[in-house]
Each structure stands twice: as C-alpha cells, then as structure tokens.
Write a structure and sequence with these properties.
249 residues; alpha/beta; Rossmann fold; seven-stranded parallel sheet; 8 helices; 7 strands; 44% helix; binds nicotinamide-adenine-dinucleotide; oxidoreductase; NAD(P)-dependent dehydrogenase (Short-subunit alcohol dehydrogenase family); oxidoreductase activity; NAD(P)-bd_dom_sf; Sc_DH/Rdtase_CS
Length: 249
C-alpha cells in the first residue's frame, strides 16, 4: 500500500532538484503525477517514472494561460487533483538592495510569488470538485529570516508563506489543506549555481547548517510527501522548516 494510492498530484519544477525528487517519491507511493517544468526537463522525470503513472507538461508557472491549461489537461487525463506541489522557483542574481536590478526583482517575484498564486487560483477549484486536497508551497528559510543580497528572493518567499496562511484559512472548512515548506541549504542545481565560481561559498553554506552538511532533495521530498498524504490531516496553514536546524540559531 502506498501513502498516496489513488491520488493525483501536480509537481511544478519537476525537471530538477526538489521537484524531481518529489515527483519520483509521490509516484513510488502510488500517486499519478503530472511533472511540470518550463525547461523540457520534466519529460525525463516522467519517463523515469513511467507512462502508467506520470505525464509531462511544459508549463511556465508565471503565465496564467499555462497554469489554467495544466489544470484542464490534468482533469482530462486523470479526472481529479488531490495534491498540488507549487515548487518551481528561481534564485535571482544576488546584489545589495540599492544595486538590485528592478527587472530582476519583478522576474523573481513573478515566478516565485505570482506563480504560487496562479497555482492556487486555478488548482483550488479543481480540488473542490472532488472534495478537497493538499497544497504544498515551496517557500524557504529565506522566507523566515533575512539574507543579504537576496531582497527579491526573500520577499517572494515571505509572500509564499503569507499566501499559504491565507488560502489555508479560506479553505480549511472545505477539505483543502495548504502548507508551506521552508528548505534550508539543499544540494540541488540551484545551490550549485549559487556557489559556482566562489570557492568559499560551499564551505560557508555548509557551515551555516547546524547539522554540518547540506540537505538532500529527497529529505525535502519526504516532508512534502507527509504533507501530501492523509497522515498530515490536522496540519494546515503551517510553514515548516526542513533545514538541518538553520532557523533555530
Ligand atoms: P532547481 O533549480 O534544481 O529546480 C527548480 C526547477 O524549477 C527547475 O527545473 C526550473 O526549470 C523550474 N522553474 C523555474 N522557473 C519556472 C517557471 N517559470 N515555470 C516552471 N518551472 C520553473 O532548484 P531547487 O533547489 O530544486 O528549487 C526548488 C524550490 O525549492 C524553489 O522554489 C527554490 O526556491 C526552493 N528552495 C531551494 C533551496 C535550496 O537550497 N536548493 C532552499 C530553499 C528553497
């Protein structure tokens, strides 16, 4: 028996890192999984899972037409939506606040915050058709504490946490749970881009983790699985760190 038997899940950002690990784990636990990404890499994740349990969709989460179409195609294909993992995100180019490019600020907010809004806007009505479901939004420890150089990223992840709480309250009585996860430093292509060309950056990020190492995408996916499953039936409106103790400092 899988922990997500009979459930249909959408995972955004499924072509890489945390989203890829989650798509594979959700499928291993019995879910049918829509693997969505903007790069085309979602196809490889769906192929790895296999056609009986996964479908790939090329989606830009920051475009309403794409997100609406993803919901329509999910309904046509699988008939329902039980789990929505709004996970796609970008880090943006770091700079001190006065030097932060205005266009870059909008780009990061557009994908990370507006993208999560669109996922909930178009996903919630589909979930309600079959009595509810579970939404998991990927925020970050950067939504809980400040990070110099990351004004847009921290703003976007703080927004994800607040939107999570709002939607959780709006739909608590209608069977939809909405939670945010706040990963610490997780070894994914995102962090590799961040540390590229900076010899000390990896050591510094590792030292920032009280457990003395970076997390793995699978460790984050495990929390997403708990929130996706009925085991978390009394958990909603939460922003849960999965961070090796990062925000406990
Ligand atoms: P990643 O770069 O490996 O994966 C992110 C995926 O999102 C990529 O496949 C990318 O193509 C996709 N994506 C980006 N923009 C998109 C768009 N507009 N539409 C659809 N897909 C899009 O990074 P990751 O570390 O796996 O990040 C996943 C999530 O976790 C992000 O929201 C990130 O902010 C968050 N996060 C990561 C860390 C970390 O340390 N890696 C820490 C905290 C939070």
């Amino acid at each position: 028996m899988g922990r997500l038997d009979g459930k249909v899940a959408i995972v955004t950002g499924a072509g890489s890192g945390i989203g890829k690990a989650a798509a594979k784990l959700f499928a291993a636990e019995g879910a049918k999984v829509v693997c969505a990404d903007v790069t085309g890499a979602e196809a490889a994740t769906a192929t790895e899972i296999g056609p009986a349990q996964a479908a790939a969709m090329t989606v830009d989460v920051s475009k309403a037409a794409d997100v609406r179409e993803m919901m329509e195609r999910t309904k046509a294909l699988y008939g329902r939506l039980d789990v929505l993992f709004n996970n796609a995100g970008i880090e943006g180019t770091p700079a001190p606040t006065p030097d932060y490019e205005e266009e870059e600020f909008h780009r990061v907010m557009h994908v990370n915050a507006f993208g999560v809004f669109l996922g909930m806007k178009y996903g919630i009505p589909l979930m309600l058709e079959t009595g509810g479901g579970s939404i998991i939004n990927t925020a970050s420890v950067a939504g809980l504490v400040g990070f110099p150089g990351l004004v847009a990223y921290t703003a976007s992840k703080g927004a994800v946490i607040q939107m999570t709480k709002t939607a959780a309250l709006e739909f608590a009585a209608q069977g939809i749970r909405v939670n945010a996860i706040c990963p610490g430093v997780i070894r994914t292509p995102m962090v590799e881009r961040f540390t590229a060309g900076q010899p000390d950056a990896e050591a510094q990020l590792t030292m920032a983790e009280p457990v003395g190492r970076m997390g793995t995408p699978e460790e984050v996916a495990a929390l997403a699985l708990f929130l996706a499953s009925d085991e978390s039936s009394f958990v909603t409106g939460a922003a849960l760190p999965v961070d090796g103790g990062f925000v406990a400092r």
